[in-house]
Amino acid sequence: MTNHSITPSPNNPRVELINQASLQPFTTFGVSSTCDHLYRIDEIEELRLATQYLEDPLILGGGSNILPMGNITRNVLRVELKGIERVEETDEYALVKIAAGEVWHNVVLWAIDQDLAGIENLSLIPGTTGAAPIQNIGAYGIELSSVFHSLEALELGSGQQKDFLTEDCRFGYRDSIFKNDLRGRMVITSVTLKLSKQHNVHTSYGAIQQTLEEWNIKDPGIRDVSKAVIHIRQSKLPDPAQLGNAGSFFKNPVISASAFEDLKKQYPEIPGYPAGNEVKVPAGWLIETVGWKGKRVGNVGSYAKQALVLVNFGEAKGEDVWAFAQEIIGSVEQKFAIRLVPEVNIWS
Ligand SMILES: Cc1cc2nc3c(=O)[nH]c(=O)nc-3n(C[C@H](O)[C@H](O)[C@H](O)COP(=O)(O)OP(=O)(O)OC[C@H]3O[C@@H](n4cnc5c(N)ncnc54)[C@H](O)[C@@H]3O)c2cc1C
Fold first, then answer.
1. Helix%, strand%, coil% for the chain, nearest 5
2. What pLDDT score does 5 carry?
3. For residue range 192-209, what is the model confidence (pLDDT) as tens digits?
4. pTM of the complete model
5. In the CATH scheme, what is the code of domain 4-79?
6. 196 burial class (0-12, 13-18, 19+ CB within 10 angstroms)?
7. CATH architecture of 84-236
8. Who lines ligand 1 at CB under 6 A?
9. In the beta sheet, which residues pair with residue 190?
10. Topology (CATH level 3) of domain 244-347
11. Candidate from 40, 107, 134 with most ligand 1 atoms within 8 A of CB, to mutate
12. pLDDT band at residue 1, thresholds of 50, 70 and 90?
């Protein structure tokens, strides 16, 4: 850093700098790891200076999709900007601008309180709003892209503001331009969503409908759907506060229809879901079939209720988790000729 106006001082309480910071409390995997300098910034002008003057920083939100390995000899910039604002209204929808550091689940609960629909199926996904477009978060049949309007970002190096509309983001399954051409080059500062005042709830995916029926709810609203999603997620996924994890460790592989047909001849029970002209195969099924579900090696394991989630039983290092993941990748590739790709971002 050359310009030190972002240096924390009594006059500059909007920046906190921690040297040799432990990343354990800032990431949900809970593996032991440090970084040289951790900057926590909750003010846009300070963030702009940081994007101009900090050398090649790594960007951190809620740390729920990161596996840090060892000691990271880089600056880490934690985006803590806060604020939610309704910026445009019609009879049909509201445009809502959300600062990047807002916790995503709080935004979902806020929207429900405001009677705005569209993100209730994305309840309880950990992390911040600024990270949500990076992998186009999705769950229970809905992806962020379905309600996304635009985002603002600061370019690393120049500190210039760049605006992105939906078509600029190249959203795909757990994917966007920010994981590809613009990987590590933008700090997202706000996300604007187009939330609906008409409530067309989506209950067909997973166990939502079944849960609502069990609760005897015949005409569900967005709050009911959110509660059902929270209930299902809590029963299936480990709480990172109890058991370190980053949700699905691998992406569900998408393979050609002909490759899927070939596999189906060998394994008639293999599940597959249409993904455009291709077929998405649940990675959890592949992992379970090769025998890794619920297995533990030292301090790392595959979660007993959901094979796709790798867990830290307490003292694991990032390297232990990565070695475990490599074993799974090898077993799945050997049996099915499919190479699993991590959904989690590996920091080393
Ligand atoms: C129990 C559990 C369940 C999960 N379930 C789901 C699920 O159902 N669906 C789903 O899609 N994901 C899920 N995830 C993954 C995770 O919640 C999402 O990927 C989330 O968007 C990550 O947000 P974060 O703020 O924690 O990002 P981080 O983990 O801090 O960062 C993730 C990536 O985004 C980058 N980044 C973060 N903030 C910014 C910013 N402001 N500007 C630019 N880059 C940034 C980081 O550099 C990193 O590459 C789950 C995770 C856990 C632990």
1. 30, 30, 40
2. 45
3. 999 999 999 999 987 999
4. 0.94
5. 3.30.43.10
6. middle
7. 2-Layer Sandwich (3.30)
8. 28, 58-66, 79, 100, 125-128, 130-132, 134-135, 137-139, 186-188, 237, 240, 245-247, 345
9. 99, 152
10. 3.90.78
11. 134
12. very low
